[in-house]
Amino acid sequence: MAKYRITARELRVLGYPESPAISVALEVAKKHYKKVDKQQVFDVLQQVLLHPDKFLGDDVLGKIAVKLIEPEEQELTTLTEGVRFKVYGASFVDGGALAQMETATKLPIAVAGALMPDAHQGYGLPIGGVLATDNAIIPYGVGVDIGCRMSMTILDIPVTFFEKQQQQFKRSLVEHTLFGAGNGFKGKKLTDHEILYHETFGITPYLRNLNDKAVAQLGTSGGGNHFVEWGTIEILQEDEQLNLSKGKYLALLSHSGSRGLGASIAGYYTKIAKEQLRLPREVGNLAWLDLNSEEGMEYWLAMHLAGDYAKACHDVIHSKLTSAMGAQVLAKVENHHNFAWKERVYGKEAIVHRKGATPASNKELGIIPGSMTAPGFLVKGKGNPEALMSASHGAGRKMSRKTASESFTHHALKKMLNDHGVTLIGGGLDEAPGAYKDIHQVMKAQEDLVEVLGKFQPKIVRMADDGSKED
After folding, report:
1. Are residues 199 and 315 in the same domain?
2. Contacts of 120 (CB under 8 A, 6+ apart)
3. Contact, 82 vs 111, CB < 8 A?
4. Which of 44, 69, 94 is the C-terminal boundary of a domain?
5. Residues 42, 29: Cα–Cα separation, whole Å
6. CA angle at residue 384 from 380 to 390, to 5 degrees?
C-alpha cells in the first residue's frame, strides 16, 4: 500500500484552482482514500476536476465538485475601518509609511498595530511597522531579509589597546568578513555549522535546493545598511543580565540577516500567498497564509530556519573576529527584526510581525544602531502594550537611496567620517549619515518603550563597497 502523501502543490499541477477546492480535495483524499494507491487517487481527482457536474450527487466526491462549480470568489475587500495603532515620533514619520500602516490595519486578519519612530515606506508593511494578526502570517510583513538582526559582543581587550592598534583591527575586518548581494565564500573559507544540517531543509524539495546557497553565504553580510564594526561602548547602567560594571569597553557590532536563503523563502511564499488571495492592488503585497494551511505551516518553519541561519551568520563572524584578536567575551546582546512571533496581544494569541522593529518586552535586551557616525544604544525593553512590546530597529531613513546618492559627495562623506574619528571600509553615498534621521530624536520619541543601558560609538566600519541593496 502506497503511503498517503498527496500535497496541495501536486493538485495545482493537476489543474485544481486555489482554496477552497484544493483544501476540500486534500481532506477528502486523506479521509476516504488513504488506503488507495496514490496514482488511483490522482485519477479520481482528475475526473472530478474535468467533469464536476457528474459528481454532484456523490456523497464524498460531491463535496469537491460543489467547490469547483461554485461561482468564482469575489475579490477580498479590506475593512472599512482599520484597527487602532499608535504612532511614535509622528512628527517625523513620513506620510508614505503612515499610509501603508493605515492600509495594513484594514486587513480582515488585523488585530492591532504600532508604528515606530524610525518608520519609513517599504514593501507591504512599512519599515518600522508592527502588525498583529489572527492566525495568519504575511511573508512581506516579515520582510525579504528574514531574521535580519543586531549582534553585539563586548570584549575584554582594553580600549586603550584598541585605540593604539586600530590598523590591526581594520585588517581583521578585511580578512574575516565578506559583503555584497549574492556574494559567498569558496573552498577553504567555507565554514561548517550545525545550521546547515537543520531538518527543515528537508521538508520540501524547494528548501532542500537552497542548502548550497546557505553553505556558501554562511558568515557573510549583505549590502545596503548591513555592517560589521569595531567600536566602544559605555555602560551607563549596571544590569544583572549584562553583569558589567559601568565604564567603557571594546565591542564588536554587526547587522545583517539570512542572505539569499531568506530572500528566496520570502519570494517563494509571497508568490503562493498572492496566488491564493485575490486582494485589492493597494494591499497586494500583504497577502497572507493561514497558519493552519500546509503552506502556512511550511512558511512558519522556513521563517524560523532563516532566522536561525541569520544568527549562525553572526555567530561565525563574531567567532572569527574575536579569535583573530585573541579576545575573550564579557557579554553578548542580540536581537531579531524582520520576523514574526506568537505572542499575547490584549489577552489573545496573535502573530506579531515586526518589520524593522526591535522586540522590547519587559527587561528584554536589544541594540538600536544609529549610523556610521552616530551612536547606537544598548537598551532594555519596558514591555509597552500599545507598542506591541516593540521599539525602533535603528534611526530610520529620511532619504531614499537614490536621493542620498545624489545629495552627498564622497568628499563630504570623507570629511564627516574624519570629524567623527571613524574609518570606513567600503560603504556608499546611499548610506551617508545624512540619509538617516537624528538617532537622538528617535530615542527621545521612544522613552516609553525602552530604557538606555549603554551607548555605542562606531570606530572602524565595514560595509559593502557598492552601496547595493540587500538581496
Report:
1. yes
2. 93, 94, 96, 97, 126, 127, 128, 396, 397, 398
3. no
4. 69
5. 9
6. 65
- Identify how many contiguous H helices and E strands the chain contains and give both numbers: 15, 17
Same domain, residue pair 303 and 193: yes
Residue 269 belongs to a domain: no
pLDDT digits (tens, 9 = 90+) for 312-358: 999 999 999 999 999 999 999 999 999 999 999 999 999 999 999 99
Phi and psi at 128, nearest 5°, equal 90, 5
Amino acid at 61: L
Q: Same structural domain for residues 299 and 202?
A: yes
The half-sphere exposure of 218 on its side-chain side, counting CA atoms within 13 A, is 25
| Claim to verify: residue 310 and residue 455 sit in the same structural domain | yes
- 65/184 same-domain check: no
Write the pLDDT tens digit of every residue in 348-395: 999 999 999 999 999 999 999 999 999 999 999 999 999 999 999 999
Residue after which a domain boundary falls, among 24, 50, 69: 69
- Domain span including residue 233: 149-256+294-331+366-378+392-462
Is there a domain that residue 324 lies in? yes
Task: Report which secondary-structure segment, H or E, holds 458.
Answer: strand 450-462
What's the maximum distance between 2 C-alpha atoms anywhere in the chain? 85
| CA distance linking residue 309 with residue 195, whole number of Å | 6
- For the chain, how big is the Rg over CA atoms in Å? 25
Structure pTM? 0.83
Would you list the DSSP string of 40-69? HHHHHHHHHHH-GGGGTT-TTTHHHHHHHH
Q: Are residues 162 and 60 in the same domain?
A: no
* 24 domain-assigned: yes
DSSP for 389-445?
A: SEEESSS-BSS-HHHHHHH--HHHHHHHHHHTT-EEES--GGG-GGGB--HHHHHHH
Residues 357, 338: Cα–Cα separation, whole Å: 7
Q: What is the DSSP string of 237-254?
A: S--TTTT--SEEEEEEEE
The residue ranges of DSSP E strands in 296-415, in sequence order, are 329-336, 339-345, 348-355, 357-359, 365-368, 376-381, 390-392
